[in-house]
Amino acid sequence: MLTNYIKIAWKVLLRHPFYTFITLFGISLTLTVLMVLTSFLDHLFGSHYPETKRDRSLYVMQMMQMDSGRTSRNSGPMSFRFLTEYAKSLKTAERVTICTFVNSSNAYVGSQKIKLNTKFTDADFWEVTDFEFLEGKPYNEQNIANSDQVVVITDDFKKHYFGNGTESVIGKDVEIENIHYRVIGVVKGSPVTRPFTYSDVFYPYTAPKSNYQRAGMRGGYVAILLAKKQSDLKTVQDEFQSHIARIPLPGVQEGFKYAILEVKSEPYLENFIGTLMDGNKGIKTVFFGIIAFIMLMLMGLPAINLVNVNVSRIMERASEIGIRKAFGAPVRTLMWQFIIENIFITFLGGGIALVLTLIIIQLINNSGMIAYADLTINVNVFLISLLVCLVFGLLSGVLPALRMSKLKIAEALKS
Fold first, then answer.
1. Pfam families from the entry (predicted)?
2. How far is CA 216 from CA 79, 80, 220, 245, 266, in A?
3. Smaller CB count within 10 Å for the chain: N or C?
4. CA of 57: how far to CAs of 97, 101, 223, 232, 278, in Å?
């Protein structure tokens, strides 16, 4: 019986190409947009190369100092000394890395200038992250203790500075801002959408111009706290906040008098949204409300489309329903026929959407729009999206089918 229903559904689709096109277009377009969007969001916030441990990482991005009335404030990254004292000393964390955000430098190949994004890090940076070393190895605590002028570079910078040759560049010299460094490692780069790890050149924090010895609480450094397991995140957060609570208040920072000090350690998504919304809970609520509304509208499109198309499609099949009822077909049988037809159509649209999404993602990854882009299809999102569309499809098919199945035989045959 199921096979017969699918065959009937296929014949109906072929009989009315226009209705078929509208139905499949609505389902596949909606699912494609949704999957590409969620793929990009997953690219931004998910645990991907080289930050594959985001699910058990806490990010310390900025310090906020405010006066007692919260009318004036001063915020920004912290000093290396501050993070060493209050973050590196954590006992519940597996590892803590301190690094800068992206800085700018220049290198020259002949008369050609290469604009670089650079980053100063400690040795633990290479343990907290999971960079793929194509050549060489990372600098270690010994390199840092010796103040060795060594660097780790990306494969992209290697190509621009040394050319496209296959020869190893380990031990070779690079000149950046009139300072010579020895290449100790070459890594596959990180996308620009991951600011904690994005860079063309990585220096030990003891390299020139790092300002790691700067006194005071403010500076140019951030930190990643890596928990031993995801369930330990709250414990690490609590210990870090207990360290921050030890800082005497009120205080003075570069002439600014503050009575309130906030330094948060948060998962990446919360950290990103908190920074974007500047800690305003009202704006956060509005932001997530808008996102939910957009998602609801995206998922509502196929429902509206399917309701309209199914009403027209089923109404024109009134005579078919009348004949089947005349031969004794029960209401339940007629209902199941239209339900299975809708399931079949929805899965066809989902299959088309999956193919379209794969093509679009590959085009984005290969276009160079986002360096080192690694967008992938989130299988869970695809299945949930397909399930929601299927529910909408069932509702939009069941209601008209129920109405038609209850028609009297004479009325149905006249239609």
1. FtsX (PF02687), MacB_PCD (PF12704)
2. 7, 9, 12, 17, 23
3. N
4. 11, 17, 10, 10, 21
